[in-house]
């Protein structure tokens, strides 16, 4: 389980999980789940275009995810982001369908772009993925304070002179960068599962930002590692385990949070009871 | 004149049975999606509307795998997904995004498994592409009555709860104060949405399903604030986009020398997208013109429109 190509899988999965945990925490905090789904899924069309033109998939993904991020960020108005996101997504997918119609034998590649091919990562892929991941984390670190403030209290952020629109576009670009890193490895659809389930679980366990951020990374790592191990054991796709374990981690997180809330509620009531 | 006619409608357009089915199915789906979509856009549930397409597609590939009728899988898992979304909290604004995301994430995992198993057992070639992109031209004539029946169910559901749904969409607080069961209305609406989306993603693919649900409705709501007008406009835009898209896709076979026709979903989505951008530009100009009027007049006029 820890030899040859499996080592590549473990290393890239670890990188992807860290990126997904960090970016996903802000996705959940800001309620940006739809763009986080739309940008990777739409960027998949870029990969199709790149393979049609015979250039690197990474370039196609990068260009399309940045186009998607800028499109969503600049067209959306306050509170009406969902319509623009939906339309940008279908437009990118329709372009992808048009590109795909120009080639005939593409089926296995479509599947691997959508659902990932983590067990097929080659050693030469690790370095660019690691580099982009570092850039992504660094970008989050640079805008950490304004991003956090505008996510938690948009009005206060505005009052302090933080332009929430600019932060929004920066954040969407970070999602685009994370997409470019992760889509070739875990696929356009599963990066979404990984960016939502573990951070949502972390947030239901603690309300302290830094702790939740770390917890999101830890849960994402646990999810991906367990998914690879299970996939190795049972020969079912990694994507299935990532999707289901991600949702499961949220369910467990909610359950534990409910249990924790229920417990202290009993003790003060007992203490306050007249003797 | 004759030449122009032939240039617009390439030979055999009206004789082709695929075109007949595409025009019928596309028209029905466009109308159902437009009506449901107006409420989806007004309620801010585009993400749920899109996700239910993916959720029901997972159901469809699961049903295919165990040899059930795909329609049962599409509609069944769609409704189940809608129920779970409502349970987690789709009706609260803060929880909505997350609830949809969690359900979507789990459904994506399931479709990864189903499609993998389908591919390894070799049941259908090109299943991934079929589920994601679909094609209005591969729809069989037998699906027309099925699409019509389920479309009628979805529209009938919306018609039954029309007034309470409208009131609880525009102002949940007033609706609750007047004794409208807001939660129940929300659940019924989600079921109608699930049926409509499941049906459309089966008939015409997940991309077109989302495009027809959101695009025409959002465009109509840019142009008018009267709900009845918005419903009519959305239906007209949706049906026209589908029919013109079908025509262009058919004609594209004759463009150039390669004889590779472009997919119909590309044309329909492009038409819808451009229409939306134009409507945003038009309503932006109207809003700037309206800003010169005294604010109180505009506000009173808007209030009348919402009440109407």
Sketch the topology of chain B as an H/E string, one letter per element. HHHHHHHHHHHHHH
CATH architecture of chain A: Orthogonal Bundle
How does the major sheet of chain B shape up? none
Fourth-tier CATH superfamily name of chain A = ABC transporter involved in vitamin B12 uptake, BtuC
Task: List the domain count of chain B as a whole number.
Answer: 1
State the total count of DSSP E strands of chain B.
0
Alpha plus pi helix count of chain B: 14
Q: For the record, what is the CATH homologous superfamily label of chain B?
A: ABC transporter involved in vitamin B12 uptake, BtuC
Quick structural summary:
The complex is a heterodimer of chains A (275) and B (308). Chain A is mostly helical and 275 residues long.
Keywords for this structure?
heterodimer; A: 275 residues; mainly alpha; ABC transporter involved in vitamin B12 uptake, BtuC; globular; B: 308 residues; disordered C terminus
Account of the 3D structure:
- The complex is a heterodimer of chains A (275) and B (308).
- Chain A has 275 residues and is mainly α.
- Chain A contains 12 helices and no strands.
- Chain A has a single domain (5-272), classed as ABC transporter involved in vitamin B12 uptake, BtuC.
- Chain B is mainly alpha-helical.
- Chain B has a single domain (2-307), classed as Orthogonal Bundle (ABC transporter involved in vitamin B12 uptake, BtuC).
- Chain B contains 14 helices and no strands.
- In chain B, helix 4 (70-88) packs antiparallel against helix 5 (93-121).
- The longest helix of chain B has 29 residues, at 93-121.
- Residues 294-308 of chain B have low confidence and may be disordered.
- The interface between A and B is large, with 51 and 55 residues.
Layout of helices and strands:
The complex is a heterodimer of chains A (275) and B (308).
Chain A: H1 5-30, H2 33-53, H3 57-75, H4 81-100, H5 107-115, H6 123-142, H7 144-152, H8 154-159, H9 164-186, H10 190-205, H11 209-234, H12 238-272
Chain B: H1 2-8, H2 17-43, H3 46-65, H4 70-88, H5 93-121, H6 127-133, H7 143-160, H8 162-170, H9 172-177, H10 182-204, H11 206-223, H12 227-252, H13 264-290, H14 295-307
Helix pairs in contact in B: 2-7, 2-10, 2-11, 2-12, 3-4, 3-5, 3-10, 3-11, 4-5, 4-10, 7-10, 10-11, 11-12, 11-13, 12-13
């Amino acid at each position: 389980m820890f030899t040859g190509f499996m080592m590549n899988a473990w290393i890239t999965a670890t990188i992807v999980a860290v990126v997904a945990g960090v970016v996903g925490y802000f996705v959940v905090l800001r309620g940006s789940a739809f763009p986080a789904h739309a940008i990777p899924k739409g960027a998949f069309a870029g990969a199709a275009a790149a393979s049609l033109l015979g250039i690197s998939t990474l370039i196609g993904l990068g260009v399309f995810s940045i186009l998607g991020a800028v499109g969503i960020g600049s067209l959306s108005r306050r509170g009406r982001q969902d319509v623009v996101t939906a339309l940008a997504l279908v437009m990118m997918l329709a372009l992808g369908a048009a590109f795909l119609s120009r080639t005939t034998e593409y089926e296995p590649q479509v599947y691997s772009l959508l659902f990932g091919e983590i067990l097929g990562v080659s050693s030469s892929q690790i370095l660019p993925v690691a580099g982009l991941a570092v850039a992504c984390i660094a970008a989050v670190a640079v805008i950490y304070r304004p991003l956090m403030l505008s996510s938690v209290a948009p009005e206060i952020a505005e009052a302090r002179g933080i332009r929430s629109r600019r932060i929004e576009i920066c954040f969407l670009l970070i999602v685009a960068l994370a997409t470019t890193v992760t889509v070739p490895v875990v696929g356009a659809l599963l990066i979404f599962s990984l960016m939502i389930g573990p951070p949502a679980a972390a947030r239901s366990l603690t309300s302290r930002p830094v702790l939740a951020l770390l917890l999101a990374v830890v849960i994402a790592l646990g999810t991906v590692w367990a998914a690879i191990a299970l996939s190795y054991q049972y020969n079912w796709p990694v994507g299935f385990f990532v999707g289901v374990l991600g949702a499961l981690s949220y369910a467990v997180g909610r359950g534990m949070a409910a249990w924790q809330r229920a417990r202290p509620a009993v003790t003060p009531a007992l203490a306050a009871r007249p003797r | 004149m004759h030449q122009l006619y032939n240039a617009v409608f390439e030979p055999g357009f009206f004789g082709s049975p695929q075109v007949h089915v595409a025009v019928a199915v596309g028209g029905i789906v466009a109308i159902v999606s437009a009506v449901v979509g107006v409420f989806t856009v007004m309620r801010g549930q585009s993400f749920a509307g899109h996700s239910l397409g993916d959720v029901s597609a997972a159901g469809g590939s699961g049903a295919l795998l165990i040899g059930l009728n795909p329609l049962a899988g599409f509609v069944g898992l769609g409704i189940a997904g809608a129920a779970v979304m409502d349970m987690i909290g789709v009706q609260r604004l803060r929880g909505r995004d997350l609830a949809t995301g969690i359900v979507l994430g789990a459904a994506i995992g399931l479709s990864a498994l189903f499609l993998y198993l389908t591919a390894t057992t070799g049941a259908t070639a090109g299943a991934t592409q079929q589920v994601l992109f679909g094609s209005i031209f591969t729809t069989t004539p037998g699906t027309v009555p099925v699409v019509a029946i389920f479309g009628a169910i979805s529209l009938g559901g919306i018609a039954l709860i029309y007034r309470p749904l409208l009131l609880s969409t525009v102002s949940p607080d007033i609706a609750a104060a007047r004794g409208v069961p807001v939660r129940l209305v929300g659940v019924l609406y989600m079921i109608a949405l699930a049926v409509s989306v499941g049906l459309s993603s089966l008939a015409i693919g997940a991309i077109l399903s989302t495009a027809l649900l959101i695009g025409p409705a959002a465009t109509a709501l840019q142009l008018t604030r009267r709900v009845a007008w918005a419903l009519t406009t959305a239906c007209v835009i949706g049906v026209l986009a589908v029919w013109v898209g079908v025509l262009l896709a058919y004609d594209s076979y004759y463009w150039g020398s390669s004889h590779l026709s472009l997919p119909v979903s590309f044309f329909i989505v492009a038409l819808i997208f451009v229409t939306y951008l134009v409507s945003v530009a038009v309503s932006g100009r109207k809003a700037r013109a309206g800003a010169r009027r005294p604010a109180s007049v505009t506000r009173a006029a808007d209030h009348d429109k919402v009440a109407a």
